[in-house]
Design brief:
Layout (H helix, E strand, L loop, with lengths): L2 E2 L1 H4 L16 E5 L17 H15 L9 E3 L5 E3 L13 H6 L2 E4 L9 H18 L5 E3 L11 H8 L26 E6 L5 E5 L3 E2 L14 E4 L2 E6 L2 H4 L11
Parallel strand pairs: 1-4, 2-5, 2-6, 3-5
Antiparallel strand pairs: 3-4, 7-8, 7-11, 8-9, 10-11
Length: 251
């Protein structure tokens, strides 16, 4: 969870605070049908704190409320802004009982903005954080579950009721190391004569199993000569790539 505190976001102190045990599921909100910043539906994360401050100013100055209405605000870039915080009654859910029982978690974007993977992951982590700190019911409902409203939009509403699924993290496969025949006693590569029916194994450096001659390796080329016969170095490219480690001992 990537939390940005009130102080870090530059929020004003609340006029007053009312607190109590809030044990219902959290409630998902959106910022509106379409959020446009500088003429665009996407914006840089550097704009997010200013958007949150603007919401607080509107709620406190135009609405006359004690603070920004929400307990937490999630931006599309995967950050949680602290609003009223934990177990603090909010002004967002639309009913007195809802405001006193359910944490309001608002998505800074709207229905017409991309519901990013980063937003999904952070929103879910925020809800889980609330559960872990307050022992409220797990899961999340939508603003429209409290009253008749379009909020939080169909996309986010269906998502929270589907259990807030998030994309599985992807990781780059870690390639297996290329066998270094100067060091590994069990290293093996395959050598093939130009006649593909004749396959030989190179073990422990320079000895070709079943044959006497040593192999002279030119590490900059994939082929080399042995007793006036051309041989081709075969390394499992899917496993080791096309790099060949020079098996000759270092001076």
């Amino acid at each position: 969870m990537n939390i940005i505190t009130r102080a870090q976001a530059g929020l004003r102190p609340p006029k007053y605070v009312n607190r109590g045990a809030m044990l219902a599921q959290s409630t998902c909100h959106y910022n509106g049908p379409d959020i446009i910043v500088s003429g665009k539906k996407t914006w840089d994360h550097s704009k997010c704190a200013g958007l949150v401050r603007g919401i607080q100013n509107y709620h406190m100055d135009a609405k006359g409320w004690s603070d920004i209405a929400y307990n937490f605000i999630i931006c599309p870039h995967g950050y949680t802004f602290e609003g009223r915080g934990l177990n603090t009654y909010n002004g967002a859910n639309g009913t007195t009982s809802g405001n006193k029982s359910s944490h309001a978690v608002m998505c800074l974007a709207g229905e017409g903005n991309t519901f990013t993977d980063a937003e999904k992951v952070e929103f879910r982590q925020c809800v889980e954080y609330v559960v872990s700190k307050t022992k409220c019911h797990s899961g999340c409902m939508g603003h429209r579950d409290h009253k008749s409203t379009a909020c939080p939009g169909d996309i986010r509403y269906k998502w929270v009721h589907a259990g807030m699924p998030v994309p599985k993290p992807t990781s780059e496969p870690v390639p297996e190391p290329i066998p270094d025949l100067r060091k590994a006693s069990d290293a093996m590569v395959v050598i093939r004569k130009k006649n593909p029916t004749q396959r030989l194994l190179l073990w422990n450096g320079m000895t070709i199993v079943g044959h006497d001659p040593l192999v002279t390796v030119t590490p900059t080329t994939p082929t080399f000569e042995a007793d006036d016969v051309m041989w081709e170095l075969l390394v499992d490219s899917a496993k080791y790539g096309n790099t060949f480690v020079d098996p000759r001992p270092k001076d």
